[in-house]
């Protein structure tokens, strides 16, 4: 995927690597709907749902010779899989917004074919006496003891952020309202050594520890039914967001239309009185959000709705950058062509200003290294003695370390700031772009961190004229060595009109990355931040 100037088409690409990191935590599959008599050859379809909805689908019978295999996965996990070839036939995400987000990076169709089959409102839950009333979701999420979850993976956690945004819908700078709320939540998430549980498991563990948690009415009703114990729940005075469950067809090729027909059969079955009763017994409201009968649940509640999807996607980018580890190499072209002006400044000056601005705002948990490449670079400015490598094509000015890591008398951030300030173009026009990109890709891959989004960010103004390998050779090697289970994403930022945009797009695409072209230092800064916030996997 590529973009001119400010990022656009890739705006929802933030979550994929972040979720690939936890895919192993999902996936418990089981079958439902026994083979009907007279069906010698039933057709089987996989249906991805959360663990909360799985029992409902398991007990649903449909007409015809159709079988379903239910796969329990969180919506963020399914979103990540849709960017690969390993996809379910049908998907019932906990939140219809996941389908539009996933559609940005999916390699096949993501088609919503029904109105919501079920809904459930978000609540704050805990043991009786532990849940305090809140005026709004901003106040509720500001509770330092609240257990929140991972909004890049979980429907309720993502829904809670959407609720805050919906409350600020009339605020022209809504993100200014949400950032102070997300920062401490993201910081707590960022220091975790393992993925936080989800769904009813998260509710049970939090209640056992005496805490409060973002949950759903359905999960609370399930807890009450299973444990025969009461829970305290609160809905902020402003209202709450309904987590809805549409049916989405994600099957590929010739299988797609048949899967859509199976989706219709499933929808029809759950719209019968028997199907609606089953939803209610499991604590779900119907698709219209009508309160549960017999005084169960939270009762009638004001419903918050978020109309502007772009602010939700921006919030996810902010969360990803704050909460999830980033590990990257910045590879900057310093060949002689970077001394030429682009507008009123030289290209190297544009990059220096942009890099300085980005360096000031990136959080301390970002891990980054800095490479320079271009002809004559081995005779470049004085560099730290611990540089990992020096060749005729590139130098490793600083190895990958956390921004807050102590280096000599300062931090990695201080070192990178100093190196950027010294950055200047060489006198040699040679640019070994392909060799440098491959070396950086292998460098990051060899020291891969499974908890982080691993990437290479390349900033250049020209085409390759000095590599030992060809473009086709590089693309072949990247295709062969790119490992979806250990994704290293290449992001390219091309400067000016002379840059070989098509080649940079091909290189980025080979690893599932993204390519941009710009000549504005403000854009460069934004693109660097976007490149790190994006969670796209190869």
Write out key terms for the chains shown.
Rossmann fold, D-Maltodextrin-Binding Protein, domain 2, alpha/beta, 24 strands, 538 residues, seven-stranded mixed sheet
Notes on the structure:
It is built from 18 helices and 24 strands. The protein has 538 residues and is α/β, with parallel strands linked by helices. It has a seven-stranded mixed beta sheet with strand order 1-24-23-22-15-18-19, sandwiched between helices. The model is unreliable at 5-35 and 382-389 (pLDDT under 50).
Summarize this structure briefly.
The chain has 538 residues and is α/β, with parallel strands linked by helices. Helix content is 36%, strand content 21%. The longest helix is centred in the middle third of the chain and has 17 residues, at 174-190.
Count every helix, treating DSSP H or I runs of 4 or more residues as helices.
18
Number of strands: 24
First-residue to last-residue Cα separation = 12 Å
CATH superfamily of the largest domain: von Willebrand factor, type A domain
Rg over C-alpha atoms, rounded to the nearest angstrom: 25 Å
Coarse shape: globular
What is the CATH topology assignment of the largest domain?
Rossmann fold
CATH architecture of the largest domain, by name, is: 3-Layer(aba) Sandwich
Topology:
Layout: E1 2-4, H1 16-20, E2 28-32, E3 43-49, H2 54-58, E4 66-72, H3 75-81, E5 90-92, H4 97-103, E6 111-112, E7 118-126, H5 137-141, E8 146-147, H6 155-167, H7 174-190, H8 199-208, E9 212-216, H9 217-227, E10 232-234, E11 240-245, E12 248-249, H10 255-270, H11 273-281, E13 285-286, E14 303-304, H12 309-323, E15 326-333, E16 341-342, E17 345-346, H13 347-361, E18 366-373, E19 394-402, E20 406-407, E21 410-411, H14 412-422, H15 433-446, E22 453-460, H16 471-481, E23 488-495, H17 501-509, E24 515-518, H18 521-533
Parallel strand pairs: 1-24, 3-4, 3-5, 8-9, 11-14, 15-18, 15-22, 22-23, 23-24
Antiparallel strand pairs: 2-4, 5-12, 6-12, 7-9, 7-10, 7-11, 7-13, 16-17, 18-19, 20-21
Helix pairs in contact: 3-4, 6-12, 7-12, 8-9, 12-18, 13-14, 13-18, 15-16
